[in-house]
TrEMBL record:
Coiled coil: none annotated. This is Para-nitrophenol 4-monooxygenase. GO terms for biological process: 3-(3-hydroxy)phenylpropionate catabolic process. The keyword Magnesium does not apply. Residues 7-339 form the FAD-binding domain. Keywords: Monooxygenase, Oxidoreductase. One of its GO terms (molecular function) is FAD binding. InterPro entries: FAD-bd, FAD/NAD-bd_sf, PheA/TfdB_FAD_monoxygenase. It comes from Caballeronia zhejiangensis. Pfam families: FAD_binding_3. The keyword Ribonucleoprotein does not apply.
């Protein structure tokens, strides 16, 4: 059986790839096992928060991400008819952070940038088409069984980083519960070519409406936008597609007919607020969606996952390279779980509830609160500074110095 005196990363999503990148740069031997044949093109994350951008810089990938990303200076709140009722401007935290803005870019492009950086590291081996099916561990090693094109392969490693997403096989196999709720709503994420700017839309918009709530965000510099809206979970995929022109007529400014836009991707999702009971069991440590899942309202899932990757890789490096006590892995687990339970999940839950609130009195109170945040710079600063909580308790490492 193949033995790795290093780390196996299960799942080559953005969190797994970043974990592998930091480990690889520190000289740790890494194998990434990914069930798919390539980076997934599914329409998922698009918006990244200031502490995440800072982490991207420390990972050394920010410049390449910036080449394609869109800079987003504000978050805008609109009623269902498109009228703007509040704007939070990131300039309110200009004195507090090096990155007073969000970056917008499809998650697949972010993953592809990380993948390119990984390809320069001879000690990192990415194995596509490798689906992990079982995991077993003893005091010294984790044994992983993988289905791959040649059949079943077995591999053992000192440590496993489980970054195999919300439906994590690893989490299930090591017996960790994933407690929380699944939202009743079904989300439909579409990538669509349509000119929102001629209708006065800004780059990131939350549309608040009991029926026609939506997130409308510019995806990149090519004219592609993300429109994410709610759909009846009981209808078929064909029905979702059939109803889309009628939904878009109501959701998109200018009430366009299908000849005025082009849908590039459409994917329905069920969304959750769930968190693993622990992020570490023995030699297996969870990160990203495998550890915690949130609804995407507010762009906090991957924004937090990127920071998980940094903290986990840092802890693993000190254990593998410097023989530090495994306590650093427990600290990672406790700290990142706290970030999710005390900041990410409540914030995303509040965002989603605000968007789809059906009680007119509550809706009026929510609108007033957000309007106040949009007019009082001190409140605006406080709201936007709260995203720094994604960092958790440990201080971010200084920016990575890359060789010229
Ligand atoms: C519509 C939508 C919009 C979103 N928008 C945002 C946003 O704007 N900002 C934000 O921060 N977050 C957003 N998110 C959340 C974000 O997409 C996730 O947090 C992110 O994908 C988590 O990355 P990950 O690497 O942990 O998991 P994933 O991206 O799920 O990657 C897991 C990987 O593991 C692989 N895998 C699974 N099982 C196995 C196995 N058994 N063996 C080997 N490989 C396996 C999968 O193929 C996949 O490549 C959004 C999500 C959705 C659905």
């Amino acid at each position: 059986m193949e033995t790795l005196e290093g780390v196996v990363v299960v799942g080559g999503g953005p969190v797994g790839l970043l974990t592998a990148l930091k480990l690889g740069r520190a000289g740790v031997k890494v194998i990434v096992l990914e069930s798919e044949a390539c980076v997934s093109p599914s329409p998922r994350a698009v918006a990244y928060m200031p502490p995440t951008i800072a982490a991207m810089q420390r990972f050394g990938v920010l410049e390449d991400i910036r080449k394609r990303a869109v800079y987003c200076p504000s978050i805008n709140y609109r009623h269902g008819d498109g009228t703007l009722f509040s704007t939070l401007e990131w300039s309110a935290v200009a004195e507090d952070t090096e990155f007073p803005y969000m970056l917008l870019l499809g998650q697949n492009h972010v993953s592809n940038v990380i993948k390119q950086h990984l390809q320069t590291l001879p000690n990192v081996d990415i194995r596509w088409n490798h689906r992990v099916e079982s995991i077993d561990q003893d005091a010294n090693y984790v044994t992983i069984e993988t289905r791959c094109p040649g059949g079943i392969s077995r591999l053992r490693a000192r440590w496993v980083a489980a970054t195999d997403g919300a439906r994590s096989t690893v989490r299930e196999k090591i017996g960790l519960s994933f407690d929380g709720i699944t939202w009743a709503e079904r989300l439909v994420a579409t990538n669509v070519f349509y000119d929102f700017t001629v209708h006065g839309y800004s780059r990131a918009n939350f549309v608040h409406d009991p029926l026609d709530w939506a997130v409308v965000v510019q995806l990149d510099q090519s004219g592609l936008w993300r429109v994410c809206y709610g759909e009846d979970p009981s209808i078929s995929m064909e029905e979702v597609r059939r109803r889309m022109p009628e939904r878009f007529k109501r959701l998109l400014p200018g009430a366009p007919t299908p000849d005025r836009y082009r849908v590039d991707h459409l994917n329905p999702y069920r969304v959750h607020q769930r968190c693993a009971a622990e992020f570490r069991r023995g030699r297996v440590i969870l990160a990203g969606d495998a550890a915690h899942a949130t609804n995407p309202m507010g762009g906090l899932g991957l924004s937090g996952g990127v920071l998980d990757a940094e903290h986990l890789a840092r802890a693993l490096i000190s254990v593998v390279n410097d023989s530090a006590s495994v306590k650093v892995l427990d600290d990672y687990s406790v700290d990142r779980r706290k970030v999710f339970l005390e900041f990410t999940s409540p914030t995303a839950t509040q965002n989603f509830n605000w968007m789809k609130e059906s009680d007119p009195a509550q809706r009026a109170r929510d609108t007033e609160l957000l309007t106040h945040a949009g007019t009082d710079r001190a409140v605006m600063r406080e709201v936007l500074l709260s995203f720094e909580k994604l960092n958790g308790s440990s201080r971010p490492a200084p920016p990575l110095k890359l060789a010229a």
